[in-house]
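Ticket #4471: structure export looks truncated?
Reporter: QA, pipeline team
Priority: medium

Steps to reproduce: submit the single chain below to the structure queue and open the exported record.
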Amino acid sequence: MTTTQDNQRQNAAGKLEELAKNKLELKRPVFFIPGWTDEACVCWMTPYLKRGTCIKEWAPKILRNPELVNYISFSAKESEGCKSFFDFGDILKEKIWDKISRKTDFDLVGHSMGGLDAVAAITDEEETLLNVNKLITVATPHQGSELGEIGPVFRKYPEHIASQCVNLDPDQPAIKLINKPDVREKLLNRVKKLYCLMGTRDQAVMRSARFNKIGIDPERYQEKVEIVEIPGATHFEKLGITQDPRTILAVLKILCDIELEKPKYNYGYVYKNR
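Actual output as written to the record:
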C-alpha cells in the first residue's frame, strides 16, 4: 500500500528531476561528513538499496558546479586515534584545509555523529573554522543518544569504536561539554545559520536531533536555528534520512540559498515551532 510518506518521497524525487533540467548553483564549497562507524562516507555516497539514491548521485545532475562538493572520509588509522567526536573534529579541520584556503567561506553537512564532529571543529578554541556559512546537521544527537548507554554491548568491536559510542551518552563529559550554553552560543556566533534535519522515526537519536535551546536567548535561537522534520524517516538503511529524496531536495536547496517554503507542507518537510 502506498502511504502519504511514499507519495511525499515520490513528489520530492519528481522535483529533483525537474531541478536536473534547470540546474542549481552552489554558493560555496560544501563538505559532507559521515557518522559513527561510517568512516567511508557511505551514507552520502552509496545507495543503501539497489533502487536507492544518495547525494553523490544527484549532485552532478542538479548542480552547475558539482566540483564544489566534497565528501569527508576517515581512514581506519584515523578512526583508531579517535575516542570521541572532538578527536574527529580535529581531523576534520585538517581535511578541509587540505581542500580550500582558510579564508574561503564554506558549508558543512553532517550525518549523526558527523554533525557533532562539525560542532566540535567550529567551537574549538585553539584553531577554529571561522568561515562556516551554513551548518546542516542531519539526525545529529546534539543532546546525546541513549545508544551511548549500551556502548559496552559493542565489545566485539575495536575499543575505539565502543569509546566513540559511549561518548554519545548524554551523561558523558563529551556531550555535557558540547552542550554548555557558552559552547552552543559560540556555535551560533560562528555560523550564519544552523539547520537541524530530523526523522520522525529515528530511534537512534529521536528528539536529540533538535539543537538545545536552553540558556539561549529565544529571539536569537529563532533567528539562527531552523528545525526541519522529515516524516517517517529513520536513522539509516531503507528509510534512512540521508538517502530520502525529501532530505536530498531540502539539503540541495539550502546549500543553493533557496529558502524552504514554510509553514506549509512542502514535499514532506514539516517546520516545527522552536
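Status: closed, not a bug. The export was complete when the record was re-opened. Leaving a note from the reviewer for reference: The chain has one domain: 4-104+113-271.
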